[in-house]
Amino acid sequence: MTEITHIPPPLGLEPGAHEGEFLINMGPQHPSTHGVLRLVLRMEGEVIRGVWPVIGYLHRNHEKIAESRPYSAFTMFSDRLDYLASMNMNLGYAIAVERLCGFEVPERAEHIRVIMAELNRIASHLVWFGTYGLDLGAWTPMLFGFREREQIIDLFEMACGARLTYSYIIPGGVTEDLPDGFVERARAFLRMMPAKLREYDDLLGDNVIFRRRVEGIAPLDTETAVALGVTGPLLRATGLRWDLRRDAPYSIYDRFDFEIPTGTTGDCMDRYTVRMTEIRESLRIIEQALDALPDGPIQGKVPRVIRAPKDAEIYDRTESPRGEYGIYIVSDGKPQPWRLKVRAPSFSNLMSVAPTSIGLKIADLVAIVGSIDIVMGEVDR
User: Fold this and answer.
1) Which of 134, 145, 154, 176 could crosslink 126 through cysteines, CB 3.0-4.6 Å?
2) What letter does residue 201 receive in the DSSP assignment?
3) HSE-CB for 235 with a 13 A CA cutoff
4) CB burial class (10 A; 0-12, 13-18, 19+) of residue 28?
5) How far apart are CA 41 and CA 49, in angstroms?
6) Under CATH, to which class is 73-305 assigned?
């Protein structure tokens, strides 16, 4: 086997191709790349003249694995795509299988799914808030964000016994009903969070040093974002009010009243504001779902061995904390997919780094990469 020792950079990033410029690597071990991401930078002094993202250091072959596993077994692999939003990953995969096979989900299970997905959206945004502060030199946001996230993780542990990868939302429903005390504890969290969000803004959002680091940095217009396949908070920060929970409703999201926050310029500050406002809207959704939570079964009628119709295919998409999470399945009638493809939002969102970084400094690049909120588990799927 021939050993690959060098991957040639694309046109414009060759060493010596530009007089007075040089190439350097940022990552794959750099703490501000939020995972094993390597960025090849063409620099003129401290000014960025070119950026080349290099991925693949965390590749675990999830899509090929799906072709040799029963449909029900892939739930645990979906956990490990975006491992900061495992409930959302479970939900997107479960809905795709249900639509492919025609399974129905009981009302109580639908409400529980929405509660869990929105709690996980908040938990994911809290991790982003803390790590983004850390990227820019502020340690306290990390402590504060993880303090509140811990309460959400405690709720997940009550429901399914796990704290990171849950395998809780499955085709047909959920694995376990909500335990005694869950609803009361969740309501206590909802009452507590608004004051904490104001605390976050006092600490970071309104901090003059933070604002100078992010305001006007890496503005992204809607046309470019759409062309790059950018979705989620990054797309909404450009001013486009697009959210699959509202614009292509799934589960029971069409029953709830909530707003879709947007920005104006798509810069790093807008991305912060959109995510913080999304937390507030997720709190509204959870409260409505708790108020409407019905009694009844938590699992629909799903055969022990799932077989999708032969020659059937489905593409289903949901709104993860990072954007459009899509599952494409092709069936040949066997107990496992013939083909499964994951549309990972972090992968497409990462493409916005290069066009928004040119002419800025390395310190700005740290702010840009952090603002994207990538999870390499779904990029290198």
Assistant:
1) 145
2) I
3) 25
4) middle
5) 7
6) mainly alpha
